[in-house]
Amino acid sequence: MALTLARVVDDQGDGVKGSKGLSLFLVRLRDAETNTLNGIQIMKLKNKLGTKQVPTAELLLDQTVATKLSDDGRGVPAIANMLNITRMHNAVASVSSMR
Asked: Which structural domain range is residue 35 located in?
């Protein structure tokens, strides 16, 4: 499973543009019964500095089954807390392994 930011769109395909229109979702990557991808299509892999083993991509989540964890348009503030927890965990793990 993964946490993802996604834009909620209406029947006409319109949604709030920019990061203000993003909501936080919990997505199971594969369907439990068929083991196929849960409506996830990779649109673009991003070229980035840093950890290349953990790719960053733009995905199309069309008909993807997910659970919304934040209010509409409040995804960035919601995921910021998760990122801070991850950063703290990585810092503590690095320092403890050096010890």
From this structure: 2-98
DSSP class of 46: P
Stronger pLDDT, 12 or 87, i.e. the higher one? 87
**Per-residue pLDDT at 12:** 67
Are 70 and 78 in contact by the 8 Å Cβ rule? The answer is yes
Q: How many domains are there within the chain? A: 1
Q: Are 56 and 10 in contact (CB under 8 A)?
A: no
How deeply is 24 buried, as exposed, middle or buried, from its count of CB atoms within 10 A (0-12, 13-18, 19+)?
buried
- How far is residue 56's CA from residue 54's CA, in Å, rounded to a whole number? 7
In sequence order, the β-bridge partners of residue 59 are 42
Nearest to 21 by CA among 69, 65, 71: 71
**Spatial distance between the Cα atoms of 53 and 56, rounded to a whole number of angstroms:** 10
